[in-house]
Known about the structure:
This protein is an all-beta fold. It has two domains: 53-66 and 87-236, Jelly Rolls (Sandwich), CATH 2.60.120; 257-387, Jelly Rolls. Helices cover 2% and strands 35% of the residues. It contains two helices and 27 strands. The protein has a seven-stranded antiparallel sheet, with no helix packed on it. Strands 19-12-9-14-7-6-27 form a seven-stranded antiparallel sheet. A four-stranded antiparallel sheet has the order 1-18-3-2, with no helix packed on it. A hairpin with a 7-residue loop joins strand 2 and strand 3 (40-45). The chain starts with a strand and ends in a 13-residue tail after the last helix. Homogentisate binds at residue 340. GO terms for molecular function: homogentisate 1,2-dioxygenase activity; metal ion binding. InterPro entries: HgmA_N (IPR046452), Homogentis_dOase (IPR005708), RmlC-like_jellyroll (IPR014710), RmlC_Cupin_sf (IPR011051).
Amino acid sequence: xxxxxxxxxxxxxxxxxxxxxxxxxxxxxxxxxxxxxxxxxxxxxxxxxxxxxxxxxxxxxxxxxxxxxxxxxxxxxxxxxxxxxxxxxxxxxxxxxxxxxxxxxxxxxxxxxxxxxxxxxxxxxxxxxxxxxxxxxxxxxxxxxxxxxxxxxxxxxxxxxxxxxxxxxxxxxxxxxxxxxxxxxxxxxxxxxxxxxxxxxxxxxxxxxxxxxxxxxxxxxxxxxxxxxxxxxxxxxxxxxxxxxxxxxxxxxxxxxxxxxxxxxxxxxxxxxxxxxxxxxxxxxxxxxxxxxxxxxxxxxxxxxxxxxxxxxxxxxxxxxxxxxxxxxxxxxxxxxxxxxxxxxxxxxxxxxxxxxxxxxxxxxxxxxxxxxxxxxxxxxxxxxxxxx
Length: 389
């Protein structure tokens, strides 16, 4: 939902006849958000897009998150999960999400696929945002192809039919499923809908699908997720039979290193790193940047008592001055109501620093995050006490 795009062949107005070479009508599909009041895209198909034959044997999908039973009795504590120790699931993206933490607004998972999707997938529960920690490939949709690589965010709108075609090599993604929708921060839009000139990104930073025209991959299976359950369908025709589309609802790629960080006289709060907004959550990007420039500035983040938010951090690359014992792929979870901050010695050691090379994705949530059994299996039990002197 960055701006309106038109691709391929479309008629002069909505809802008027556009004919194929044999005189038959192209079939218009309206893809809408918030009923008819939100962003929308209109696609023109060679065949009817709304014929689905039930296929109970499709066998595609991933498990819904379930709170670990033992978490109900665990003490309140700062947590560190070593997601890098999760093995590759040896499967396709539609099958191999491993949920680690979740609430009613977001599901935070690791995805380690090793093969292409062999069906199309439509998530009817929420928008999907992937951070590509390692790997790359192509997101294939009826709107076209979208290439992505390491250090990209990949956004897939709720309900958008798609499949992933993977590049060779290791794949390691963070998945943020936004059950109440996701978009850019409203404060960075002007009255005309443009990104403002002081926004931390510009329209040119976002990549939209490259339209290919009608494509038939001879794939007829379709998996649809609704209320945490997966349903299988068979299609009579390729769903990529689109000759043109226009609208403002489509997948996009945003490279995390295109985010334009801010530096201040003294330390700025994490909200300045806000990249995407979701219901009940703020998604932030910490990228290499200059640090504070007051002569006595303390660049290290201050101890923080976040009484209303849980903090989730996925560490991607670089040296994290406020933490020890974490590395690429580490996940920290600092629950609300319990103060958190830098490890002993880090606060003082940051004096005089002028630049940081850290790269991390943060998700602040207003509802508590609950761990799954998969998260508990990769937890670092020493993390909470590592903050003691």
